Every structure is written in C-alpha cells, then in structure tokens.
Amino acid sequence: MTKKFLLGAATVLLALTSCHNDNTNTEPSVSFDEVLTTRRSVRSYDPAKKISEAEVRELLKATQEAPSWANQQPSKYYVAIGEEKLKAAMEMIGANKDRVADAPVLIVSTFERGKSGYFQGQATNEVGEGWGAYDNGLSNCYLILKARAMGFDTLIMGMRDADQLRALFDIPENETIMAVIALGYRNEEPTHPDRRDLDDIVKFF
C-alpha cells in the first residue's frame, strides 16, 4: 500500500512539475535591450494579424507611466480600430497610406496646450508649448517600446492632415495634433539604419 501511495504521489508531482515547466517556457522573456534593438519603423504590415481593443488598452496604459512637466500628463490618444474610422483615417496620412495600408490600428497622438511648460497661465521659459510636444514625444516613446515588448510594430508618421483628423475624431481645438502612429505586425524584416557614432552626440566635461 505504501509503495503504491508513494508511486502515485511521485507521478502527480512529476506531472505538476512538467506543467509548470511548460507554462514557464511559454512566457515571453524579452529583455529591455532586445526591445530597443528590435524596435524599428515598420512600413509593411501583415494583413492577416489583428490587434484587439484590450491589447491597445494595455499598450496605452503604459504611456501613463511616462514623465511629464509637473505631472501635467498632456498627451491624448484617439484610436482608429473599427473598419469605418480606420478606412477614413487612412485617407488622411498622405503617402504613408500605401506603407501602412494593412496596419489594423492607427493612433492619433495629441497634447493639450497650456499645460506643460506653463505656470499660472504663463510660459515659464522660451520653450513654451515645445514642452507639450516634448512630453508627447516621451509618451509616444513609451507607446512604441511597450508595443515592441508585446510583439507589435509601429510607425510614427508626421505626414497627416490635422484639420481632417480633428473633424474625424472630434478633437478639441485646445489640442495640438502631433503624429499618427500605425500599429500592427511586421510583414517583413525592416532594415537597421546606421546610427551616428556616440562621440558625435555626447560631450563629457
């Protein structure tokens, strides 16, 4: 009886261990350095792969961790994920339309003016609204890095018709429309353009 009990217990323990190992092996393990080096501006997307609203929410939640002037959090996002809005937005990004036609999501990035860089309604230095754009860039950076960590790819696009986008998404007049970001899965491996030498951009004193 004791031998049978021990044999049964050992079998259960082995099964549990195997199950744990299987779960561990399926968990993604991407280092931060890998996220940085594999993040590329992707201009060809897989039309067969879609992204859910829940996944986009998880992605955009990461942007809320980005730093901003006095924690003003000026960045806003407008997501075209439904077929009608996505098709309409595609017509408002100029020549980039052909590059991201198969991307399942387009995200319009804006920032509220008069927040970052301001104190009691006055600009605190010569940069002025540039601080809003700066904070929006930081927020966008969190977005594209989180996207890569989730296995997605992106393209930040500055070619866009701001007036048409404002009307399509009912964007308030006090928000500056910065970029449109394509989100999807790469359809081909993008190139890795050369970067400037570190000594060209850094000075130590």
Automatic annotation (TrEMBL):
Assigned protein family: Belongs to the nitroreductase family.
Name listed for the protein in its UniProt record: Nitroreductase
Keyword Oxidoreductase attributed: yes
Gene3D superfamilies: NADH Oxidase
CDD domains (UniProt xref): Nitro_FMN_reductase (cd02062)
Signal sequence region: 1-21
Keyword annotations from UniProtKB, A to Z: Oxidoreductase, Signal
Coiled-coil residue windows: none
Domain Nitroreductase: from-to ranges: 37-89, 96-185
Domain of life: Bacteria
Species, as recorded: Xylanibacter ruminicola (Prevotella ruminicola)
Name of a matching Pfam family: Nitroreductase
Record GO terms (molecular function): oxidoreductase activity
InterPro entries: Nitroreductase, Nitroreductase-like
